[in-house]
Design a protein that fits this description.
This protein is mostly beta strands. It folds into two domains: 142 residues, Immunoglobulins (Immunoglobulin-like), CATH 2.60.40.10; 80 residues, Immunoglobulin-like (Sandwich). It is built from two helices and 16 strands. Strand 12 and strand 13 form a beta hairpin.
Amino acid sequence: MKSLYLLVLGLSISTLSIAQSFTYSPSADVADTIMEGAGSSLDIYIGNEDTTDITYGWLLVSNSIPESWFTSLCDWPNCFAGIPDSGVMNTITVADADSGIQGFFKLTLSAGSAPDTATVQLYVYDITDLNRGDTISFSYISFEDTSSSTGIASKESNHLAIFPNPSDNIVTVGASGINRISIYDMAGTLIRNDVYRKVDKVDMNVSNLNSGLYFIRTESEAGTIQRSFIKL
C-alpha cells in the first residue's frame, strides 16, 4: 500500500512541480562526478519568496543509490543515516529568514568500489499546502580510479575493517599491524592522527566529530589503505 501511495504521489508531483514554488541555491538539481570508493557532499538551499513563516516538509520520490554505498541526509536541523521516506524541517520564521536562515538538504555519500550511477529525487513542499512544492534532485556518477602512483589503496580492501559504519560514538578499525590511523574531512583536512605499535584493532571515540563523511587512513603491515566513514 505504501509503495502504491508513493507511486500515485510521484505521478501527482510531476504535474505539481512544473512551476517552481521556491528558490534554490545553487539549483534545484545538483550533480557530482566522483572516483569509486571516494565521497561527495552536495547541498541545496531553499528560499521562500513569501514574507511569511514556513515549515518545509519533504517526501522521497525516488532513490537509485546502490546498497553498497554509504549515505546520509541532513535537513534543517536533522540528520539521518540513509534517506527516510519523509521528513519535516523546523519552522523558519520571517525573522529567521531575515537573519539568513534557510531550509536546506545536504546529501553525503561514499561510493562503492565499482563504477556506478545514482539519483535521488525529493519533493519539498509547504506543509500547509502539498500543492506548493517542487521536485529536486541529486545525481552522481562514480568512475574507476586508474591511478597507480599514489601508493594508497583507493578501493575497498579486505585488509581494513571499519565498523559500525555509520557510527555516532565508537568505531572499530581493524587491520594487521596498525602503526598509524589518520582521519580526514571532506576537504582533505587532517582531523586526527594517532600512532600505535603494530596493533590489530583500535576502538576510536568519534563522538566529538560533526556529522558527515570522513576518510580513515591506516598505515599497517598491509600498506597504506584509505576507506570512507560516515559520522552520524
